[in-house]
Fold this sequence. Notes:
This protein is of the alpha/beta class. 49% of the residues lie in helices and 6% in strands. Strands 1-6-5-2-3-4 form a six-stranded mixed β-sheet, with helices on both faces. Helix 1 (32-43) links the parallel strand 2 and strand 3 (48-54). Helix 11 packs antiparallel against helix 12 and helix 12 (276-298) crosses helix 18. It starts with a strand and ends in a 6-residue tail after the last helix. It binds a DNA duplex through residues 157-161, 239-240, 283-284, 287-288, 291, 309, 311, 315, 358-359, 362, 404, 408-417, 422, 424-427, 429-430.
Amino acid sequence: xxxxxxxxxxxxxxxxxxxxxxxxxxxxxxxxxxxxxxxxxxxxxxxxxxxxxxxxxxxxxxxxxxxxxxxxxxxxxxxxxxxxxxxxxxxxxxxxxxxxxxxxxxxxxxxxxxxxxxxxxxxxxxxxxxxxxxxxxxxxxxxxxxxxxxxxxxxxxxxxxxxxxxxxxxxxxxxxxxxxxxxxxxxxxxxxxxxxxxxxxxxxxxxxxxxxxxxxxxxxxxxxxxxxxxxxxxxxxxxxxxxxxxxxxxxxxxxxxxxxxxxxxxxxxxxxxxxxxxxxxxxxxxxxxxxxxxxxxxxxxxxxxxxxxxxxxxxxxxxxxxxxxxxxxxxxxxxxxxxxxxxxxxxxxxxxxxxxxxxxxxxxxxxxxxxxxxxxxxxxxxxxxxxxxxxxxxxxxxxxxxxxxxxxxxxxxxxxxxxxxxxxxxxxxxxxxxxxxxxxxxxxxxxxxx
DNA sequence: ATCGGCTCGCGCAA
DNA sequence: TGCGCGAAGCCGAT
Length: 450
């Protein structure tokens, strides 16, 4: 466990309750950050608090009903589980670092544990909470199976450069989780009024909650079970066909930390015969996901043009003046009003379900590059739409997916083209060869009056 | 249906 | 310093 843990300030731990500030890992079980916090709390005979803080003006940060409903229902389950284990769960409203600092000072915390989320808003919050003399702040990578800073000490160039590093270390980490204990040093209980919380947080209500899939840790485990028994057997063959139900559907749970990647990988590697299907799935789940964290952790410009590899920036620069014969506004993209019915179907899939099939995501982003005035606007548009409508938006996987599609990240150059330069191109004719595009369009097209 | 060429640079072997 | 090879492709030739 020790190499999952790093100190964020130099304040020595002292007498006082232990606080786990939960951000990314929204689950009670299989959570290394909580397990570590409980471990030191028991060692020091201290009560344990888990605190979650949410702004009330989420509408200013692309917050939607879809995302808030998913998150709060998951957290309600977390609070019930923690209560069963005599661990205090406190929901705070307001500016997160300010409110969490206030809380920690108020209860005279001896040490504060945070989880690991390599995106700027959260790294900034972690810096802010660490700037104190009052309590030690410790970070635990509870997301990656091989901790991000252990897997590699630099930004990796491609999957093939990080793969051997992770594969070599994996046997040391792909193990069963210890159980969360009933905490022997109780804290005062606090009860969250979830209806009040929901009503106090302002969000964009035009993006409705999802009804076809249930949030939460129990639902995640159920989904994993169904995936392993029903969809994994055809995963390798069918995963790139958007008409087939072959994918795990776990990314919403993984994004909100409602299930641990290590749990998913452990169950698949323990209980499934080693086949091309499990290999193909574990490559996605472990290598590609940890490569995304690696990029965001070591490249603070993960969401901008300047973060792209040099060869990609150069080739896109050389094609800035290329004529864009088709150009759409954000609104036209957003409402699925392009000339390309396959692209519109993908956009509709995301609008309606909060998810877009993995294969279509690549095509969808590459077409935004083709139909937008410059790569910066294309990247901004793709991220804006993904972060607003996808339930797994604002995730390192999303930033890497967009950078791969628009800016050759973790990819190689291909042959020269207008607009794209040597960035890999994708065309509708390629999609026709791979799956029944007409069926996909029919499935997602909606009646429009114009 | 299958194949080669397109094009760059990392990382390892030498 | 040379060389193999790579995160999901395209296109034209055979």
